[in-house]
Description:
- The protein is mostly helical.
- It has one domain (about 5-35, about 40-120).
- It is built from four helices and three strands.
- It has helices at about 5-20, 50-60, 65-90, 105-120, and strands at about 20-25, 30-35, 100.
- Strands 2-1-3 form a three-stranded antiparallel β-sheet.
- Helix 3 (about 65-90) runs antiparallel to helix 4 (about 105-120).
- The chain is elongated and about 70 Å long.
- The chain starts with a helix and ends in an 18-residue tail after the last helix.
- About 30% of the residues are buried.
Amino acid sequence: MKYSQIIGIGLVLAFVVVAWMPWIYIPSIHSTISGMTDDTGKFGKPALFNLFCCAFSLVFFAVPRLWAKRGNIFAATMNLAWALKNFIILSICRQGECPDRKAGFFLMFLIALGIEIMSFLPKLTVQKKGAPEGTPQ
């Protein structure tokens, strides 16, 4: 895909914004939890590892080398796995009460999925070595 690297960089930057958006609201403790802050201190920073993986993906999207594209697949897969973990753990009902899911919660997972898809579509030029031009392989 021609613009997969630019789209991937845009998705990584969008994930950074979504990390500070509200993800869930828990009515019983009157607390809004985002990826980087929560009012109670019980949930920590669930998006911190995502941002770490996104930093690597940003560099790997920008570097036009084969090793970077392979590393990007690994970083994007780790990012998607952590986003899935956050999606499952933060959305489960505890003690009969389900949290109210906000838009940032769904955007977090969809953007991580988009980063993964863009990491599978690198734009690389393939050069054949050793064969003169026009020679059948």
